[in-house]
Amino acid sequence: PAIDRGMDPRTLGLSVLFNPIFEADYSQDGARPQDGDGNGVAGFDIGALEFSEDVTPPQVAFLEPGENTFLRQTVTVTAQATDNDSVASMTLRVGTQMLAASISPPAPSVTAIALWDTTTVGDGSQTLTASASDGVGNNASATRSVIVDNTSPNTQIVSGPAGEIGESTATFTFAGTDNLTQIGSLQFAWRLNGGAWSAFSSNTTATFSGLSEGTHLFEVKARDLAGNEDPIAASSEFSVVLAVSDGHGSARSFRSDVGSRLAVEIAVKLVVEFVAVTRGRSLSAIKACGETQL
């Protein structure tokens, strides 16, 4: 009933100078006299506005990032809107902050892309919103929850050798903490003696066998779900000592704490035994006993 039912104002006897005004489109294409009902006769519509049957809003969806994804630094935000006619406008925002989005021209399907610097907001849950409007003013929006985390985890060595060890095998156990990532979801990478880092994994132990004598350095670092890595790896220095020596001899003789400690312990034991054996004996007997002990 809203189509081609209005009175034709050109028949009111007014000056023909008003006709261009009566015939002008004020709201949308085809709003004034046109064949709206398909009977072959162009007529004016009620209120001089062609009735629009488009009451369907656009459909809006996020393409990236994923729902509840952990994010850090600068990320790409992409959303898409589709409409049965045409998407006229589209915006992206995080909270109340508008994002500078690159938007494709009006079309039945429109994509909006923006780079978002997550360091401009605090760590924790954030809500992204994509909004779209079609050509007749129908509006729609979609939201996406994400988790911003720009804080690095901390790494600790729980157990492992330190100082000197008298074997060629060493095992380390390690752990980490983070402000948002659960402990069980942290991953770790390690290296020995400044070599290449291992691949990150959920393993919390590392064992090394066939270690050569000398000093070794073990390092390990944690990574959280957002991809932040501990910038200061936890480390432990230890020495493998397979030859026991107290360092006596030439200036080039190898010396170890294990060997020195053993030498002192043996010397004390011999002195105690010597005193016990020689107590109350003559000088010649003590001398003979000393030569036997040595």
What would the average pLDDT be, to the nearest integer? 85
Order of helices and strands: HEEEEEEEEEEEEEEEHH
Largest sheet: 8 strands, mixed
Classify the helix fraction into a percent range. Answer: 10-25%
Shape: rod-shaped
Low-confidence stretches: none
Give the C-alpha Rg.
42 Å
Strand content: 35-45%
| Individual helix count | 3
Structural class: mainly beta
Explain this structure.
- It is a single chain.
- With 294 residues, the chain is mainly beta.
- It is built from three helices and 15 strands.
- It has helices at 19-23, 257-278, 283-293, and strands at 59-64, 70-71, 74-94, 97-98, 101-103, 107-117, 124-134, 139-148, 154-159, 163-165, 170-177, 187-192, 205-208, 214-223, 234-240.
- Strands 1, 2, 3, 4, 5, 6, 7 and 8 form an eight-stranded mixed β-sheet that branches. A four-stranded mixed β-sheet has the order 10-15-14-12, with no helix packed on it. A three-stranded antiparallel β-sheet has the order 9-11-13, with no helix packed on it.
- Helix 2 packs antiparallel against helix 3 (283-293).
- The model has no long low-confidence stretch (mean pLDDT 85).
